[in-house]
Amino acid sequence: MAIAGTALELASFDAERFRPRVLFESAAMKVVLAALEPEQAVDLHDPKVDVVISVLQGQADVWVGDAPRRMRPGDVAVIPAGETRGMRAAGGRAVLLHVVAPPPAEEAHAGVVHRPWPEPERPERDPAETIRAEHRELLPHLDHLDALADAVTELPEDELRNRLARVLDFLRSVLLPHAGAEDAALYPAVERVLRAVGGATRTMSEDHRAIGALIEELAELAAREPAPRRALQRTLDRLAALVRVHFGKEEDVYVPLLERLDAGEARGLLEALGRTPGHEHRH
Ligand SMILES: [Fe+2]
Ligand SMILES: [Fe+2]
């Protein structure tokens, strides 16, 4: 019988003991789904079996011949008979596909010795801490921006120009290079992991959360007497800027992807949007 499905639906996890699921076996081919709980592993061994391994979900370290390799969806390894293989989930659950053709005879695994995985290598420095440290350094400068915005209507012309020049210098010589470094290095690294573990749209949901918080802030300011005009102005400005950037991201990045849905998926999306308050009766 033909089989099609997503990795997570087809896989069966077992926290007690790793159990491969044979998805298909014929005289010509054996297809196995390996569902690994976090840190579950198949020890290193070298049976007389050719195998194709790919990661369908999550990420795993796969021993390919003479070295381990961090593999993610989109990666494939071919390991000829007699060469070493092994796998270990790396940071969360992983589902791997094994294809063996022809299916191994009993004697292929006879006398094969299993060796445990070596201890995983840890980086000397944590890149997450580097990013956080940079943001910690940048944040006080944003307070300067706020302070300048507050003072802009009252500052004498000379001082205003002076402070604007300093702010512009910071934005151009520090903030933009920081963003450029993230474009070049951080985002590509994160993108590879996102392919494995998902979460690419969480940044957008974070925008929604931030917009909600600003709306609450606005409501709180609006209730005060007398009206705190400067704070109101700042919050209104922030809300408008954030919502504009957010719409821009949705239209420039997400909307073009919708062309890649098939007819059924497009229909499903429209129905789901129709059921969502805020998307009804508006067009
Ligand atoms: Fe940043
Ligand atoms: Fe949105």
Summarize the structure in words:
- The protein has 283 residues and is α+β, with helices and mostly antiparallel strands.
- The chain folds into three domains: 7-109, Jelly Rolls (Sandwich); 123-196; 201-257.
- It contains six helices and nine strands.
- The protein has helices at residues 7-10, 127-151, 157-197, 202-222, 229-254, 263-274, and strands at 21-25, 30-36, 41-45, 51-57, 60-64, 67-71, 76-79, 85-89, 94-100.
- It has a five-stranded antiparallel beta sheet. A four-stranded antiparallel beta sheet has the order 3-8-5-6, with no helix packed on it.
- Helix 2 (127-151) packs antiparallel against helix 3 (157-197) and helix 4 packs antiparallel against helix 5 (229-254).
- The protein starts with 6 loop residues before the first helix and ends in a 9-residue tail after the last helix.
- 11% of the residues are buried.
- The mean pLDDT is 92.
- Residues 208, 246, 250 line the site of one fe (ii) ion.
